[in-house]
Amino acid sequence: MKKIKLLINGKAILNAKLTAESFTKPLNQKVGNSIQISNFEDISQQLYGRAAGIVVNTGYGGKRYESESAPSEPVIEFEKIKISSSVQVRFLIE
Fold this sequence. Notes:
Blueprint: H1 2-24, E1 31-43, E2 54-57, E3 62-65, E4 83-93
Antiparallel strand pairs: 1-4, 2-3
């Protein structure tokens, strides 16, 4: 998960540079080096699994899932996750 976050952060920074270039191009100016980079982490949903009788810690507290019937094979459900990154990059304008 950490590698994915790093990749997304890199793409967010490249997107910030492209946006800055689109703002400066009509002014016949160029985007220079970055002078400040801030990361505002935003993960809208944590990855978690569900299985009978297992406590899953999502980082914000645990949830307990227990089966009402006799123990049997665990039921595992997968959900889509959304990972996003919000960055603020300040560039010099040349």
